[in-house]
Amino acid sequence: MSTHLEALPHRHVLTLPSEPSAVRMARETAEQTLVEWGIGLRHPAVGPALLILSELVTNSVRHAADRSPTLTVIYAAGADCLALAVHDRHPSHPPLYGSVAGTGTGGLATVMELVLGLEGTAVLRRDADGEGKSIWITLPL
Asked: Hey, what domains does the chain have and what are their CATH numbers?
């Protein structure tokens, strides 16, 4: 699996208002984009990837909308890798891997269980000013 996201030949960026309809729009855009890239919706990684995406966007809408009126979703793919990220401008930096150590519940714990079950990776990247972050998920295809 490629770990250099910059090298992935396919990339799509979507900015949405931080409101509940963003979840549906992010998911529909993902489905359309994946099909355009030749990744079938029946691929075993796609269902979990769509659930992960839905959970991350839901978390941004629920927890960051007061500080981040928009959120950005980045989709990227290569021959052996699917990557997605959700960015918001809330300064909270949740511990990703701590959410599966028996202490996490809810959406982020579900995300991490899916990522690890598919032998993927998750990385939280802070904005340079510390006032926002992106959660990047990479899954093998």
From this structure: 5-140 (3.30.565.10)
How far apart CA 60 and CA 63 sit, in angstroms, is 5
Max Cα distance, the chain (Å)? 40
Residue with tokens 């994946």: 34
**Per-residue model confidence (pLDDT) at position 6:** 62
Inter-helix orientation angle 21-36/46-64, to 10°: 150
Q: Is the pLDDT of residue 100 over 80?
A: no
Place of tokens 């699917």: 82
The pLDDT tens digits for 54-96 are 999 999 999 999 999 999 999 999 989 999 999 999 998 888 8
Question: Which candidate, 25, 48, 46, places its Cα nearest to that of 37?
Answer: 46
DSSP state of 44: T
